[in-house]
From TrEMBL:
InterPro entries: DnaJ_C, DnaJ_subfamily_B, HSP40/DnaJ_pept-bd
Keyword Chaperone attached: yes
Claim: Kinase is one of the keywords in the record: no
UniProt lineage: Eukaryota, Viridiplantae, Streptophyta, Embryophyta, Tracheophyta
Natural source organism: Vanilla planifolia
Name of this chain's protein: Chaperone DnaJ C-terminal domain-containing protein
Amino acid sequence: MKKAGFFHSSLLGDDVYGCVANGVREKKAPLIKRKLLCSLEELYTGTTKEIGDNSGTMMTMKDILKININAGLKNGTKIPYPKEEDEDIPDDIVFVVEEMPHEMFTRKGNDLIITQKISLAQARKGYTAHLKTLDGRTLTIPISSIGSIIHPRYEKVVPGEGMPIADDPSKRGNLKIRIKIKFPLWS
């Protein structure tokens, strides 16, 4: 005999909906997944996001969920938000981090990559990159042609200036500066 939302245990054991309690099983509500859009700056420094209903209706402060974004989280990271007994949210929610594109940097693992366009003259003489980091600092990085030739596939690696490592935010990946040389037009 089935009742709405409940299932009896069979002689073969528990089914996929949960454990048996007095021979009656309650069907668990499906997990809700929601995208959590994060800028590269938010993933670099860490932040707290307040998430509300998209319906446009007025909400009380208790209807707004606060989600902690730890420094170094990666695209696709799942952040569970389990329902508490006294909360008005309907089911367990999992927020999935979705990294938004950045205008200057791209991310590969824990490394940050930026491309600098320089002239052929700068490539021959040497070049100094002035970069604003995701936390607002300014880095001055000499890219010298002395001892190394700046060529179209040249990449300067700056250790420890990449993304924080989520398991240990005191450690960071690398910053990779890729050089793109603008060649003069020959007439």
